[in-house]
Structure formats: C-alpha cells, structure tokens
Amino acid sequence: MGLLDKFQVLFILLSAAVGLGLGQFTWFSSNGDKLIIPCLMLMLIIVYLNIPLKEMKQAFRNLRFSGLSLCINFIWTPIFAWFLGFIFLKNHPDLWVGFLMLLVTPCTDWYLVFTQLAGGKTSLAATLLPWHLILQLLLLPVYLVIFAGKMVPINLNILIESVFLVLIIPLALAISMEKTLSKFKSEFWMKEVFIPRIMPFQMIFLCLAIAAMFSSQGKAIFTNPQATLLLLPPLIIFYICNLFFSSNVCRIAKIDRGSSIGFCFSTVARNSPMALAIALTAFPERPLIAIALVIGPLIELPTMAVFVNYLKKRSGPHNSDEK
Questions:
Q1: DSSP state of 270
Q2: 187-208 pLDDT tens trace
Q3: CATH number for the domain including 9?
Q4: Domain residue limits at 172
Q5: Can you tell me the distance from the alpha carbon of 48 to that of 271, in angstroms, rounded to the nearest whole number?
Q6: Which uninterrupted H or E stretch holds 30?
Q7: 3-state DSSP helix/strand/coil percent for the chain, to nearest 5?
C-alpha cells in the first residue's frame, strides 16, 4: 500500500476541511461545484483501467463463491439497507437516499486491499470485480426508483443521463485507452508500468472532488451537523451484520477460510465514489444525499481496519494467497 492508501481517511478528512475553508470565499462557494464531476470522471477512468473486464467468466468457475456473493450484494443488501434506513433515517429522506446509494453499490477496488491485508485469497475475490461494476451500473437506477422513488422526486431521464455521463463515458474512455496503449506498447507495459504509475491519481482526484463539493455545499453542511451522528448507527449495524451474515454463509456453503475473507469483504465494502458521482449529477439540488456518501467512507474505512484484524486472527496465517 502506498502513502495515499494507508492514510486515505486522513486525506479525505483534510480534503473536506480544506473544502470547507475554501467555501468561505465567494469564488469557491460559487464555482466549486463545476470541478466535482470532471474530477470524479478522471478518477473513475483510473478505477476502470484497473478492473479486469475480460475475466468476468472466471467468476462463475466457482458458483458457490460468486453466486452467493452476488446474491448478498444485489438482493439481500438493498432490502437490508432500506430496512435500516426506515428505522434510523425515516425523518431524513435525503440522508436515507444517500445511505441507500452507498450500500447498494459494492466495492470495485478496496475490498481486495482489505482481503490481502487480512491474509485472504485475492485471486478468487478479484474475479468478482467486473460483475460488481456491470451489475451496479445496471441496477443502481432500478434500486433508486424502487426504494427511493417515494422519498425524493426522481426524474428517470436525468438519472439515466447521469449514469451515462459519469459512469458509461469514463468506462468507454478507459476501454479505448487500454486497447490503444496495449496496441502501441504492450499489455504487460499497460498492467505493470502505466497503471501503477497513475493509480495514486485515483485518490488525488477523489480528494479534489471532495474538496470541491465541501466548498460549494458548506452552507448545507454547517446547517446539518447532525448528519454524521444520524448515519453512524445504521452504517455500523450494516457492516457488522453483513460481516457475520457473510461469515455464516461461507461456513454453511463450506467455502474455505482463505476464500471466505475475500467473500466477506466483497459483501461489506462499498463503492462510495461511484455512488457520489451519480448523486451529484442526478440530485444537484439535494446536497445532503451527496454529503451522506462522503461521510460513508469516513465510517467505513476504520471499520474495515477493525475487520481486517478480526478476520486475520480468526483465520490464521495459513490461508494467505499469493499477491
């Protein structure tokens, strides 16, 4: 892990603080929102370049592992997320929608880092990446219409345009870039040289987007200081319940312990940057939705660190996979 990876929470907090400070100046508070989407699009291009779309078929060589993981992520989790939102955020619809958007988008990168740190089998867990990406692209608008349609006004055309703008276009650009560079250089150079060099910019662009968002939405943040406290209980309950639910599913399905670590993190870690990009374009007049998606990783990342230690102690060192 690089410096940006190890201190991601700190950098996110600093970005938010810098954004709030810049928001006190008129130019930044008026124009900060114009920088958010370009930064997120650049970040997502780097994310997509690191996702092995060609390996989608490999996920189903182990039907128990992949099938159960995808069922938890795309059937159980949306229902559970709505239920938690109903209990804790019923009187705060914008936070509820942001909470839903966070939880229905499974992670496409960080869960592999956590799997590796906990000594799990990263090779098997990585085969889920392309499916996480494709299914959340297809299903996020569906989940919003089904679960959030009665909470906030949803313009389906704008929602589809938002998905196309901030998700499909970066994906298409990433695929074109990969094919072009692999052709003129080599696939080895692409994977071993180019992608490692640009990976730090993924975090940099995310921090720039967060700073821009906080600078433009400072007023909404200062008038809603309780947002973090409201989101903390349902998020912690989600992470703990999904961890133990996934662990028990692995035990019943007789998935080996090394694989079960990747399975657990694949069903717990979330994809806040992707959901944030959609929220900012589909709900520009409802900043609390986006704020919930920035608060999410501030709670998630320390929780994942605790889970790493827990799973590492439970499984022992003999389950680690090759990197």
A1: B
A2: 888 888 898 899 888 888 888 9
A3: 1.20.1530.20
A4: 3-319
A5: 13
A6: helix 26-31
A7: 85, 0, 15
